Amino acid sequence: xxxxxxxxxxxxxxxxxxxxxxxxxxxxLKEMPSLQALPSVQHVDLSMNFISFLDGAAVPEQxxxxxxxxxxxxxxxxxxxxxxxxxxxxxxxxxxxxxPLKLQSLSELQSLNCxxxxxxxxxxxxxxxSLTHLFLQGNKIEDLRALTSAETAFLALQAxxxxxxxxxxxxxxxxxxxxxxxxxKLADIFMGANPFVNKRAKDYALLLLSTNEKLKRVDGARxxxxxxxxxxxRMTDASVKDLIDHTRMLYETDxxxxxxxxxxxxxxxxxxxxxxxxxxxxxESEMENDLLIKAQYLKKEVEKPLNEDTIxxxxxxxxxxxxxxxxxxxxxxxxxxxxxxxxxxxxxxxRVQKLVLLRKEAVTATEEWRRKKREAREAxxxxxAQENVSATQQETAPDEEKPPEEEQVGEGVDxxxxxxxxxxxxx
Length: 427
Prior knowledge:
single chain; alpha/beta; Leucine-rich repeat, LRR (right-handed beta-alpha superhelix); elongated; Leu-rich_rpt; LRR_dom_sf
């Protein structure tokens, strides 16, 4: 049976305080599990899985040996600075750089195997005074100038393997001149299968032996008294001197071109910075003009007197907005009440639902009554308006439609006489 999720397995297990070794190699793990549940584990083997990310936080501080080789790791995060890790194997992965791992902070690291990855330089390994064995074979390393950095110090390094990389002849001078300074205890070095070694491997081996007295083997060849004697003879050979001069010339030329390229990039950055400042100045002036124009426009708008139509429109909009907010609040309260109903017990919930339905019916009936009342009021207002219109039309009718003036006068007289008769009868 193969494990797919180690975290799930660890959760099912109990009493893991006494576990000191964890070996789960040759499984189907796709993620690096957290091992913080193992407070005593020291040896961890996660090799031959399908892990793609090295999670440094998942490794407990007390782990001393970590093997995560033969995976699919392309990137990772920093391991704890207080880690007691002494041996680490991350070979046969897909790492292009070691910088994210911050291996230089692991002060107790002694053996590091980064072979057969996709590394192009040794950045991220500076400042390792405790490292004794470093394996970098089978990568794509082209640049060794990180060894000349003032921060670089491999004071305890005894074995270095940089074979099967892409190191050119101009980089050999770095090894020739700086290895005795940065790695004074180096005893074994492997540099075969590089372009510069393929041409004159024996001469390069002799030159390295001449620069480092403690060097015992170069590409497996021991520094025997016979080899040292042959070295003394070859040191006077013109070919070896030419090799040294040629290597130095290549290195100095490369440094010269690198300096020129850096100066050119610096000039380009300065020109770019100048153009950016000019563009920013133009942009700021344009923005200032736009703000002045907008400020003047707003000032004119504010100074304009408000007419009655504008005030009425503002009031109408404000009232409409207030009504909208009130409706939203009512809907929100109703939704909260419905949620409270759903959270109640079934018996109580049924009664409350009935009350809610009755409330809704009452609200509907009230709205219907209000609508009918509003319609009746509107009908009465329309009838009153029609009566007013008809009265107005009667008052403004033509004179020929009125009765003759004489008849009106006669009628008035008769009425007066009638009134006199009534008064006399009353007397």
